[in-house]
Amino acid sequence: MNVIVRVRFFCIRFLNRMCKLFNKTIYYKTKYGIKVLNRKSDSEIQYVSESVLLNPNELYLGIDGLKDEYSSAGISCDNSPHADLMNKCLIGDLSDSYYIRNERIGALDGRDTVFYNDSFHFEQFRKNLSQIEKDYKPVKYYVIDGIKYIADGKHRASLCAIQNRKVKCCEIRLGQSTIDYFKNLVSVMEKRPELYSKNLCLLRKIILDYQEVNK
Question: Torsions phi, psi of 45, nearest 5?
Protein backbone atom coordinates (compact mmCIF):
# COMPACT_ATOMS: atom_id res chain seq x y z
CA MET A 1 0.00 0.00 0.00
CA ASN A 2 2.78 2.45 0.94
CA VAL A 3 4.52 1.80 -2.39
CA ILE A 4 1.37 2.73 -4.32
CA VAL A 5 0.87 5.83 -2.17
CA ARG A 6 4.49 6.92 -2.69
CA VAL A 7 4.29 6.45 -6.47
CA ARG A 8 1.04 8.44 -6.69
CA PHE A 9 2.50 11.15 -4.44
CA PHE A 10 5.54 11.66 -6.67
CA CYS A 11 3.42 11.56 -9.83
CA ILE A 12 1.13 14.26 -8.43
CA ARG A 13 4.14 16.38 -7.45
CA PHE A 14 5.53 16.07 -10.97
CA LEU A 15 2.20 17.02 -12.55
CA ASN A 16 1.88 19.98 -10.19
CA ARG A 17 5.32 21.23 -11.24
CA MET A 18 4.36 20.91 -14.90
CA CYS A 19 1.18 22.91 -14.27
CA LYS A 20 3.23 25.64 -12.59
CA LEU A 21 5.68 25.65 -15.46
CA PHE A 22 2.90 26.18 -18.01
CA ASN A 23 0.76 28.34 -15.69
CA LYS A 24 -2.19 25.95 -15.77
CA THR A 25 -4.62 25.08 -12.99
CA ILE A 26 -6.41 21.73 -13.20
CA TYR A 27 -9.38 20.55 -11.13
CA TYR A 28 -10.18 16.86 -10.91
CA LYS A 29 -12.28 14.50 -8.82
CA THR A 30 -11.20 11.54 -6.72
CA LYS A 31 -13.04 9.07 -4.51
CA TYR A 32 -12.70 11.54 -1.63
CA GLY A 33 -13.40 14.90 -3.19
CA ILE A 34 -12.14 17.62 -5.52
CA LYS A 35 -8.43 18.23 -5.97
CA VAL A 36 -6.49 20.95 -7.73
CA LEU A 37 -3.09 21.14 -9.36
CA ASN A 38 -1.24 24.45 -9.17
CA ARG A 39 -3.66 26.33 -6.95
CA LYS A 40 -2.74 30.01 -7.07
CA SER A 41 -1.55 31.61 -3.84
CA ASP A 42 -3.61 34.51 -2.53
CA SER A 43 -1.56 37.70 -2.52
CA GLU A 44 -4.62 39.94 -2.18
CA ILE A 45 -5.74 39.15 1.37
CA GLN A 46 -6.53 42.14 3.56
CA TYR A 47 -5.73 42.29 7.26
CA VAL A 48 -8.73 43.41 9.26
CA SER A 49 -7.35 43.34 12.81
CA GLU A 50 -4.17 43.44 14.84
CA SER A 51 -3.07 40.26 16.61
CA VAL A 52 -5.47 38.99 19.27
CA LEU A 53 -5.48 35.95 21.58
CA LEU A 54 -8.35 33.50 21.09
CA ASN A 55 -9.33 30.22 22.65
CA PRO A 56 -8.71 27.30 20.26
CA ASN A 57 -12.37 26.26 20.43
CA GLU A 58 -13.30 29.61 18.87
CA LEU A 59 -11.52 28.61 15.64
CA TYR A 60 -12.98 26.23 13.04
CA LEU A 61 -11.74 24.44 9.95
CA GLY A 62 -12.98 25.83 6.65
CA ILE A 63 -13.17 24.60 3.06
CA ASP A 64 -11.41 21.32 2.28
CA GLY A 65 -13.07 20.26 -0.99
CA LEU A 66 -13.98 16.83 0.39
CA LYS A 67 -17.19 14.83 0.24
CA ASP A 68 -19.32 15.07 3.36
CA GLU A 69 -18.27 11.67 4.73
CA TYR A 70 -14.61 12.78 4.78
CA SER A 71 -14.91 16.55 5.28
CA SER A 72 -13.75 18.34 8.42
CA ALA A 73 -15.37 21.64 7.38
CA GLY A 74 -16.98 23.25 10.42
CA ILE A 75 -15.08 21.17 13.00
CA SER A 76 -13.51 23.14 15.84
CA CYS A 77 -9.74 23.36 15.91
CA ASP A 78 -9.41 21.43 19.18
CA ASN A 79 -11.33 18.46 17.70
CA SER A 80 -9.66 18.53 14.30
CA PRO A 81 -7.45 15.95 12.54
CA HIS A 82 -4.61 18.43 13.09
CA ALA A 83 -5.13 18.26 16.86
CA ASP A 84 -5.08 14.47 16.55
CA LEU A 85 -1.71 14.70 14.80
CA MET A 86 -0.31 17.04 17.45
CA ASN A 87 -1.47 14.69 20.22
CA LYS A 88 0.08 11.66 18.49
CA CYS A 89 3.37 13.54 17.98
CA LEU A 90 3.37 14.54 21.64
CA ILE A 91 3.16 10.92 22.80
CA GLY A 92 5.60 9.82 20.08
CA ASP A 93 3.39 7.30 18.28
CA LEU A 94 1.85 7.99 14.86
CA SER A 95 0.81 4.41 14.12
CA ASP A 96 -2.94 5.06 14.42
CA SER A 97 -3.02 8.74 13.45
CA TYR A 98 -6.28 9.70 11.73
CA TYR A 99 -4.48 12.67 10.15
CA ILE A 100 -1.71 10.60 8.56
CA ARG A 101 -4.04 7.85 7.39
CA ASN A 102 -6.24 10.37 5.58
CA GLU A 103 -3.27 12.39 4.33
CA ARG A 104 -1.85 9.31 2.61
CA ILE A 105 -5.08 8.42 0.82
CA GLY A 106 -5.93 12.00 -0.17
CA ALA A 107 -8.87 12.37 2.22
CA LEU A 108 -7.47 15.11 4.46
CA ASP A 109 -7.91 18.34 2.51
CA GLY A 110 -7.63 19.81 -0.99
CA ARG A 111 -4.39 17.96 -1.67
CA ASP A 112 -4.21 14.57 -3.32
CA THR A 113 -2.22 11.69 -1.85
CA VAL A 114 0.60 12.98 0.35
CA PHE A 115 3.33 10.76 1.75
CA TYR A 116 5.75 12.07 4.35
CA ASN A 117 7.75 9.86 6.67
CA ASP A 118 6.89 9.94 10.36
CA SER A 119 10.23 11.66 11.00
CA PHE A 120 9.03 14.61 8.90
CA HIS A 121 5.92 15.03 11.06
CA PHE A 122 7.92 14.80 14.27
CA GLU A 123 10.34 17.43 12.98
CA GLN A 124 7.48 19.77 12.01
CA PHE A 125 5.92 19.20 15.42
CA ARG A 126 9.15 20.26 17.14
CA LYS A 127 9.37 23.35 14.92
CA ASN A 128 5.78 24.32 15.68
CA LEU A 129 6.32 23.72 19.39
CA SER A 130 9.38 25.97 19.33
CA GLN A 131 7.41 28.65 17.46
CA ILE A 132 4.47 28.84 19.85
CA GLU A 133 6.86 29.25 22.76
CA LYS A 134 8.17 32.40 21.08
CA ASP A 135 6.64 35.31 19.17
CA TYR A 136 5.14 33.21 16.37
CA LYS A 137 3.39 34.27 13.18
CA PRO A 138 -0.34 34.81 13.88
CA VAL A 139 -2.88 32.27 12.70
CA LYS A 140 -5.06 33.86 9.99
CA TYR A 141 -8.83 33.51 10.12
CA TYR A 142 -11.85 34.90 8.27
CA VAL A 143 -15.33 35.39 9.68
CA ILE A 144 -18.58 34.11 8.16
CA ASP A 145 -21.86 34.41 10.09
CA GLY A 146 -19.89 35.23 13.22
CA ILE A 147 -17.80 32.03 13.01
CA LYS A 148 -14.02 32.21 12.72
CA TYR A 149 -12.55 29.87 10.08
CA ILE A 150 -8.81 29.24 9.88
CA ALA A 151 -7.26 30.36 6.59
CA ASP A 152 -3.67 29.58 7.56
CA GLY A 153 -2.05 28.06 10.65
CA LYS A 154 -4.11 24.96 11.50
CA HIS A 155 -1.14 23.11 12.96
CA ARG A 156 -0.07 26.02 15.18
CA ALA A 157 -3.63 26.53 16.40
CA SER A 158 -4.08 22.80 17.07
CA LEU A 159 -0.82 22.62 18.98
CA CYS A 160 -1.95 25.54 21.12
CA ALA A 161 -5.17 23.60 21.74
CA ILE A 162 -3.45 20.50 23.12
CA GLN A 163 -1.10 22.72 25.17
CA ASN A 164 -4.07 24.61 26.66
CA ARG A 165 -2.74 27.88 25.26
CA LYS A 166 -4.59 30.72 23.63
CA VAL A 167 -3.90 31.21 19.93
CA LYS A 168 -2.35 34.38 18.55
CA CYS A 169 -4.54 35.29 15.56
CA CYS A 170 -5.42 38.04 13.14
CA GLU A 171 -8.56 38.45 11.06
CA ILE A 172 -8.27 38.70 7.28
CA ARG A 173 -10.52 39.14 4.27
CA LEU A 174 -9.98 36.63 1.50
CA GLY A 175 -8.62 37.86 -1.81
CA GLN A 176 -9.79 37.36 -5.39
CA SER A 177 -7.53 34.33 -6.05
CA THR A 178 -9.12 32.37 -3.20
CA ILE A 179 -12.63 33.43 -4.24
CA ASP A 180 -11.94 32.29 -7.81
CA TYR A 181 -10.76 28.93 -6.45
CA PHE A 182 -13.91 28.65 -4.34
CA LYS A 183 -16.14 29.52 -7.31
CA ASN A 184 -14.53 26.73 -9.32
CA LEU A 185 -15.14 24.30 -6.47
CA VAL A 186 -18.81 25.32 -6.39
CA SER A 187 -19.19 24.77 -10.15
CA VAL A 188 -17.91 21.20 -9.76
CA MET A 189 -19.75 20.43 -6.51
CA GLU A 190 -23.10 21.63 -7.81
CA LYS A 191 -23.13 18.69 -10.23
CA ARG A 192 -23.47 16.40 -7.18
CA PRO A 193 -24.60 18.74 -4.36
CA GLU A 194 -25.79 15.89 -2.16
CA LEU A 195 -22.16 14.76 -1.78
CA TYR A 196 -20.75 18.16 -0.81
CA SER A 197 -23.38 19.84 1.38
CA LYS A 198 -20.88 20.85 4.14
CA ASN A 199 -18.53 22.61 1.75
CA LEU A 200 -21.24 24.02 -0.51
CA CYS A 201 -23.11 25.69 2.32
CA LEU A 202 -19.99 27.47 3.54
CA LEU A 203 -18.69 28.24 0.04
CA ARG A 204 -21.89 30.02 -0.96
CA LYS A 205 -21.78 32.14 2.20
CA ILE A 206 -18.12 33.05 1.63
CA ILE A 207 -18.73 34.08 -1.99
CA LEU A 208 -21.85 36.09 -1.06
CA ASP A 209 -19.97 37.83 1.75
CA TYR A 210 -17.12 38.71 -0.63
CA GLN A 211 -19.58 40.15 -3.16
CA GLU A 212 -21.33 42.23 -0.48
CA VAL A 213 -18.05 43.65 0.84
CA ASN A 214 -16.75 44.44 -2.66
CA LYS A 215 -19.84 46.03 -4.19
Answer: -65, 150
